[in-house]
Write a sequence for this structure.
């Protein structure tokens, strides 16, 4: 479960709507007995700046973004694999963010990892870890609202036995962000402003 509920179009929300969404996430958190420290948004390209203080005040430290790959996205993919601290208007709050290039990688794992590794190796990517979203696929080939990939564990075991680097780890975004922040937090840049969709 995740702090943000139902992939709201945050830039269309009034402040109370954002607060109610976070409140619902907090109630879900109470069912698990573990506080939510991360939020994720998939298939939605754009996020209002007002989200930062609301997330931070709710105890959320991390925000994973997986906008759709091509339709209705403007230039949002400029931020792909460029982690940053998103600072609030007041400057008193910030949330560590990571945007992936696509929220629905699925199918054969090896070509996806090789493509991502090649892309990062041929850019100015200064980090020793990256994240990748992975979902299952419905019988008609669709990925929206698809179940988890039941073969993912076997795919990761196969990759890790075949390749020395990068080693793949299946985990939650909160686990990834926590480790990333420990390793790279001090050199991660800060930015302020809306992340607009178009």
């Amino acid at each position: 479960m995740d702090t943000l509920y139902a992939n709201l179009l945050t830039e269309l929300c009034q402040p109370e709507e954002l607060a109610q969404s976070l409140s619902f996430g907090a109630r879900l958190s109470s069912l698990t007995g573990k506080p939510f420290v991360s939020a994720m948004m998939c298939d939605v390209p754009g996020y209002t700046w007002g989200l930062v203080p609301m997330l931070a005040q709710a105890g959320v430290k991390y925000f994973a973004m997986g906008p759709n790959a091509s339709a209705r996205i403007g230039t949002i993919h400029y931020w792909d694999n460029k982690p940053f601290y998103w600072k609030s208007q007041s400057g008193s709050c910030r949330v560590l963010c990571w945007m992936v290039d696509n929220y629905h990688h699925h199918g054969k794992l090896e070509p996806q990892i090789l493509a991502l590794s090649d892309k990062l190796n041929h850019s100015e990517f200064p980090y020793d870890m990256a994240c990748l979203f992975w979902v299952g696929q419905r019988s008609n080939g669709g990925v929206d609202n698809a179940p988890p990939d039941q073969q993912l564990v076997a795919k990761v075991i196969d990759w890790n036995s075949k390749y020395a680097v990068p080693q793949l780890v299946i985990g939650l975004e909160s686990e990834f962000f926590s480790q990333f922040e420990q390793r790279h937090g001090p050199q991660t840049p800060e930015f302020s402003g809306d992340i607009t969709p178009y």
